[in-house]
Amino acid sequence: MHDAMEGFSRHISQQFNHELESIRTEMLAMGGIVERQVHDAIKALTENDIQLAEESKRLDQQTNQMELSIDDQCTKMIAIRQPTASDLRLIVSISRSVSDLERIGDEASRICKHTIEIFNSGNVPKGYVEVRHIGALVSGMINDVLTAFARRDLAMAYRVAKQDIRVDTEYRTAMRTLVTYMMEDPASISGVLNVMWVLRSLERIGDHARNLSEHLIYQVSGTDVRHQTLKSIKQTLRDDSPDDEDDLNPNSE
Amino acid sequence: MHDAMEGFSRHISQQFNHELESIRTEMLAMGGIVERQVHDAIKALTENDIQLAEESKRLDQQTNQMELSIDDQCTKMIAIRQPTASDLRLIVSISRSVSDLERIGDEASRICKHTIEIFNSGNVPKGYVEVRHIGALVSGMINDVLTAFARRDLAMAYRVAKQDIRVDTEYRTAMRTLVTYMMEDPASISGVLNVMWVLRSLERIGDHARNLSEHLIYQVSGTDVRHQTLKSIKQTLRDDSPDDEDDLNPNSE
């Protein structure tokens, strides 16, 4: 009887692990869709591809539904499995992450909306060089943070958080350039404004990618590093894994 | 012995209810601070009060810390108390709500940042009428949604969600007006852009207030209404409380 109980309990625990793994996989799948949304949104704008903009915009409904479904599974797992410690942290981190992924999808949709407005106006405004440049940076961040999640790689998560600082700097420079375009040619104001909103969305996508890296750090290390400076995040990771000196070199910043 | 156990269990349950009430009160207190932040940010801009802008900006650290502290308490309560059903929904709803409150605080900070930029430029741009108007609408939404939380008033929550549609319409009209200001006077572009960012922040604050109303509806009714249309939210509430016809009249939209 004792053996039977032990077997039963092992069975439950295996099933729970299977559920945790499955929800983690679903979150990564949602990440893949969101990554494609952002990629397509940038491509649609810079290549003036209205059909791609409309397709990418439609993906938003799918990511909205995935957010609800994954979040619902998270709450049910908490109610039924009553997880603690690292299992609970995994669930909390997934629930926070799908919220940021959904917001990235929202921003990609906004980019498509502005692409459609630009297309309908019949003019191609200046500023696509800046969109391509910052677009490539934030696309790289999304790709990296999803890889970091898949590998539970905190050093990689840290690099994503650090990259956000670069995006913010490049964003401010790009905005100044766009203001001069407007001043030189007031007739272009509406068009350039659309590009500005796109850049703003890209900058926000960078913020969400950084949030995702913070959720992973919480999941693995147990420390909630939201609202912390990069320096203090680095300290958290150093305390957690003193061997990983290369990626967390204090002189590399 | 049996009585002692029952007494113990009642004691635990009372303590848990006390904890739930206390975390709910903390969330409402955070809401009060965020409400003040938004109020002060709008006042600082429209009355050119640089000191108030700097004070309001500093409040952001406090709301960041409150988010972390309340979220930490939520996770600990889940781990220790292992709540289910409505208790779990209350905790999940509070955790989601502090995230939206923190983002409202972020937007208020952004408004202050633009106020400081405008002040330093020495020029007062056009567009303050629009800021006052939309500012009053979103301030009202925050106030109403916090009252709805305090009273668990779903009809009031629904009205907040509905008000967001009006904010979006007024926002689009205001943006068109601001574009004409820029075209008429290209020298004003930088200044008017600052006002545009402020309006964008106000519009996002409206979105977060709507999110808060959806978290309350989830908390009380158990239905996750995120990404639903107003019509379908109304249906959820009607199914939940068929007596409340006045506020949920299908002809009132």
Overview of this structure, please?
The structure is a homodimer of 253-residue chains. By secondary structure, the first copy, chain A, is mainly alpha-helical. Chain A has one domain (14-252): Up-down Bundle (Methane Monooxygenase Hydroxylase, Chain G, domain 1), CATH 1.20.58. Chain A is built from 7 helices and no strands. Chain A has helices spanning 2-46, 50-81, 85-121, 128-151, 154-184, 189-221, 230-240. The N and C termini of chain A lie far apart (60 Å). In chain A, 43% of the residues are buried.
Question: How would you concisely characterize the structure shown here?
Answer:
The structure is a homodimer of 253-residue chains. By secondary structure, chain A is mainly α.
Topology:
The structure is a homodimer of 253-residue chains.
Chain A: H1 2-46, H2 50-81, H3 85-121, H4 128-151, H5 154-184, H6 189-221, H7 230-240
Low-confidence stretches of chain A: 249-253
- CATH class call of chain A: Mainly Alpha
CATH topology of chain A: Methane Monooxygenase Hydroxylase, Chain G, domain 1
C-alpha Rg of chain A, in Å? 21 Å
Helix content of chain A: over 70%
| CATH 4th-level superfamily of chain A | Phosphate transport system protein phou homolog 2, domain 2
N-to-C SSE string of chain A, H for helix and E for strand = HHHHHHH
Number of strands of chain A: 0
Question: What attributes does this structure have?
Answer:
mainly alpha; about 85% helix; about 250 residues; Methane Monooxygenase Hydroxylase, Chain G, domain 1; 7 helices; elongated; homodimer
